[in-house]
Each structure stands twice: as C-alpha cells, then as structure tokens.
Amino acid sequence: MERRTIGAGALEVGAVGLGCMPMSWAYSGSRQRGDESLRAVHRALDAGSSLLDTADMYGPFTNELLVGRALKERREDAFVSTKVGLLVGEQHIVANGRPGYVKRACDASLRRLQTDVIDLYQLHRADPEVPVEETWGAMAELVRAGKVRALGLCAVGARGGRRSGGLYDGTIRQLRRVQQVFPVSAVEAELSVWSPEALDTLLPWCEARGVGFLAAMPLGNGFLTGTLTPGQGFEPDDMRARHPRFTAEMMAANQPIVVGLRRVAARHGEAVTAAQVALAWVLAQGRHVITVPGAKRERWVTENAAAATLRLTSQDLTEVAALPGAQGSWE
Predict the structure, then answer these.
(1) pTM, rounded to two decimals
(2) Residue 101 a catalytic site member
(3) Which of 217, 271, 305, 313 is 20 to 30 A off residue 103, Cα-Cα?
C-alpha cells in the first residue's frame, strides 16, 4: 500500500488506516464479536493498513484490549494511535486533562495495548477546567520519557465549533496554543464526501505546517457505502439511531450522493464500489491525508484497503464535488 507521512518526524503509515471503534463501541452491540474483529485487524495489517486507531474510552477500555491482542503478535507491522482525555460514566462523558491523570492513563493504555510505546497519542478533548497547555505539557513529558512517539489532537466537534463561529475555529485556536509547547504531528477530524467542512480551514492549516491529517468517518458512518437502506432502523445502542441524518426521511433524501458515487465507481470497473470512491476522494485531498475508515469485518477491511490504489480522474473529482450537499443537521 502507498505510504504517507505524519508530522515533521516523518512517521510512515499506510494511506488507508483502520478505525477500530466499531469493534466495541458506538455501533450495534449485538454485532460485535471479538475474534471476528481480531481477524479484521490482522487482515488490515496484511493489506498494509498499518495505522490502528483506538482510544481508552472505546468500550471503555475493551477496544484497546482487543487491539493489544493483535499488537502482541505483530507490533512491528502496526502504527498504533490511541487517545486520552475523556472518561465514560453511566450516562455521560466528561473531559479530564489533569497532568497526573494523563500520565496514569498513558500507563494504563500501554498495559492494555501490550506495547512499550504508543506511536501517536492524541488528546481526545481538552478539559475546560484545565489549560490545554498543561495537558499538552504532560503529554510532551510522555514523549521525552519514551512512552509516546508523537502527539496529535482530535478536532472539536461541530456543535462546539459553531458556537464560536467557523466550524473548526476552536480547534485551530487550540492548535496554535499547544504548538507553542510541543509540536503537533497529526490532527484527527471528520472528512468525507458528505461532510467536507474540514477542507475550508482545518486541512489547509495542517498542510501549511506539515501536520498529518487523519480523516475520521470518511464513509459517513456507513452511509456512503450504499449498504444502508432508508428506514432499516438501528439498534438502541447504535449512535446512528439518534443521528438526524439517519432518519428514514434524511437517508432517502441523501440517496443522490450514493448514486453519484456509484456512477463514478462504474467507470473504474464492476469491482469498484461507492465506498472505495468515497475513500479515494478523501485521499485525493492532499498527500498529508490518511483516511481512517472504521470496520469490524475482514470483508470491509479488504475493500477499504483497495481504495488506496484507486486513482480518480479530474472528471471524477469534478463530478464528486458537484454532488448535492447532504441534507439534515449533523448535530
């Protein structure tokens, strides 16, 4: 697979990574099977999808444990990214950016991941009660201690960004602050055909500074694969059951986006899918972009990895850019 670099440290990863969250968090619990997910991780590594993206809050903790089972056997094949800064309660999630907590959380993640070093340690969310410089400083100490190789920041969500003006204004302000403490190697934010907002300011900010961009949710939580049927319903623990864009009405209204992706795919051969076009479009946005689709089945991991070899023409890119914007709030 094509390799791309993250940050000034020139850390190399496959252009298509693997988002591990669906294996144990946020999606239908009845379809989460550890052994099957473990096979998917091994398949990703076989295909060159070396970046494994997880977080201590996924599960919580169980996702890191699962990834750790794979790392125990294949650490040299993997680039592991995990996150810190969010705690999961019974019915709520809270931020914790206290330096002491960050250091303890890192040690716990290392144990669960069965590794001596985390390749990319990301701040999941800044704690409003703690100056982000203090949190970032603690993370920088972990790099100096040899427990972490590089640091990253997850973008502030849409709801927070819109309160302050531009969608990613809050994230860029945080980035400017933490850059004064220790270099940012990567930023993780949503980027997809139906959520392209990062193209306006965030992605150019990263490109201008040599910061890697990890494109989260590049398949629109599964919608852009074309495998979801409007009105099919979701299990209560599936986050899409509460998402405005996944009501039957909005899924039907946004079908023209999938139709357009399929039309482009058809020009590249019968085996090419809408999902692969969606991923290839993300990769075409810049050499510093790594796409991180979530998956928990070998079949989807294989399909996603193959998108790294799909080269969209200028006509394809123009056609995708002309697709209708997504209807329905993303909040």
Answers:
(1) 0.94
(2) no
(3) 217
